[in-house]
Task: structure prediction
Amino acid sequence: MAMAYGVNAQAVGKVVLHGAKYGAGEVCGALLGRWDGAEDGPVLVEDAVPFFHKCENKYSPLMEVALAQAESYASTVGLKVVGFYQANERNDDRELHFSTKRIADVIREKSTRQACILLMNNEGFTALLSSETRDLPFQLHVRKGGQWVLEASKQLLSEGSVADVVLASISAGRQQHLVDFSEHICDISKDWRNLDLVK
Amino acid sequence: KRAEREGQGAIATMGRLPSQKALAATLDRCENAGHGGHAPIDEVKDFLRLCRDGKVRLPEQIARHGLRLVKSKEAKRKLNDTELWLINEQVCYALLDTGEIDEATMIVKALAKRFPKSSRVLVLQGALCECCGDYDKAEEVYKKVLEENEAHQGAWKRLCCVAKGRGDEEKAVKTLKEYLDVFCTDAEAWEELASLYLSLSMQKQASFCYEECLLIQPQNPSYHLKYADSLYSLSTPSTLHLARQAVGYYSVVLDLTNGSSVHAKYGLLCCLDAIRSQGRGSSSRLTEDEQKLAAKCARELEADYQEKCPALLAHLRATGILSSGT
Result:
């Protein structure tokens, strides 16, 4: 387990936009970042690849395909898959579901031992979007003692400007332009890398 | 006009699924309308109808355009009674999705006035309670509807939603199973039950549900796809015959979609790759037909990517599944 995890505006922006676009259901995706390899070195999450908004896709071969393609893309920009994000369907559901943990285990095995899970706190998400708070709406989970445990929020580092960038993206309606892997499968001309989505 | 009719034809042949293009086109016209941003009534009417036909959930857009229509005097003149109230109901559900409770309440009141004894309106009132988080009241409303008419499908389904909303997935499953005991040909309900089972990590039970869907709508590629996915996820190195079964169903999807389903091609290639790499002994060898099928799928997928998204081709190749046929 790394000592700290950092997130930047691009990663947070894409995760929040994914949640905003598909507010009625659950969303999930991969977190891309860098880890210098030191036992207690920080993991810096710099990008995100939105995977699915249809929950059945998580239990299909598309999950493995999406992970492999995310890893491939990560390597082209000097990153690795360093975690998984999940926003549960229900507003007050702060539990890590079995499927979420299982996918994160696969990521730990295949990509980064220090992989983390970011669970989107739906109520926090609403609070951020209505400017009641500047706190990022995530709960960080890491692997400790053979299980996924909730880590204190101070372990998730970010610059103050991240909230501004995220709110600006939402105000500009950028979520309309977000493409996740589910959408890509329906129309492969849609690009799940979302290269210029968050500025 | 001709394009619209073609859109309708596509909707008819694809069953529940509207032609995405037709829907996208009318939505585009609504969003980019002149007249100071107000889309013409006919355009909004078409957009809303396509959404209803295809049961498409676009709450933000439906609420925005639909609400203006509902409040417009011109619309009330132009639309016949049935369509006007169908739209009111549709817009109301959209407003519940976007959380615009005041506007939704206004519509519910209008509907209750127009249809005073309607259980359909009662169900909508229940949904309004759910939106406000009052699950107890909602449950009361639905049970009342069911007391008077135990076959009211809408009320049953909303009871299931109440259980889901409370986070009681097991209760939701129980309610839905009770419903399906009576309405065993409701494919959509079987699909919802499958979804609930998946969220409870009960893949086998989900698979049974998709089998029911297939019995009811054997021509629906979506059900073959979901069933194939469930078989794949159930398969293990010692039960690769399930992966082979999945291959069969993915092939049916390709037949039903004129070879266009990208999801089916991915599924097929993943199955054949799993058989080849995880199988032991003779079961790991792909038959000649299977090899040909893999090669064909891989070729088509690569050509598709090359044409539509060449920048992503490398990532497709990195999955390693394209070489199943070699």
User: Anything to note?
Assistant: Residues 232 and 243 of chain B are 5 Å apart (CA to CA). Chain B touches chain A through 38 residues (CB under 8 Å). Residues 1-16 of chain B have pLDDT under 50 and may be disordered. Chain B has 18 helices and no strands.
